[in-house]
Write a structure and sequence with these properties.
There is one protein chain. By secondary structure, the chain is an alpha/beta fold. It has one domain: Pyruvate-ferredoxin Oxidoreductase, domain 3 (3-Layer(aba) Sandwich). The chain is 41% helix and 21% strand. The chain contains 7 helices and 6 strands, in the order βαβββαβαβαααα. It has a 6-stranded mixed beta sheet, with helices on both faces. α4 packs across α5 and α5 runs parallel beside α7. The longest helix has 17 residues. The two termini are 22 Å apart.
Amino acid sequence: MIEVRWHGRGGQGAKTAALLFADAVMHEGKWVQAFPEYGPERMGAPVQAFNRVSSEPILLHCGITNPNIVVVLDPTLCSAIDVTAGLAENGSLLVNTEKKPEDFRKEMGLSTKTIFTVDASSIALETIGKNIPNTPMLGALIKVSGVIPLPTIISYTEKKMAKKFKDKPEVIKGNLEAIKRAYDEVRG
């Protein structure tokens, strides 16, 4: 089983990304869970979302305390809270930052974690015109985790967004491009 913890701020789409990831994984025939955890529902407030993925039925129904992968949508959270808390010793940290993994490692004083970085904010601004890094981080997670192939998340995201943004094809196209770019640009 793979467990993922997402860190973001309200409005950045951590919950939405966790749900999209779970739905796409489920369509590949795997067992999944996706759930958020947040306090006051307001823009900018810290939020967490979680995923479990398994090839067997998931019998756990509790919070995730030792994730295999931590995804950080807002790098300012790294200095505000311990985003690596409980991260498995062989776990991976995926951060939205323009910094290279080795520079981020030095800055955070990390020694044993596998670190991946991607400039999801820049990708989002260039592809969808807004700093909403959830879909780029989803693309990077697909690459880092290897849970499902890129075409699966592209196809599923396109179908899901077609319902919500049927009159805004540029939004769909931008988000799909963001996923692909982050998948290709993630560093680790």
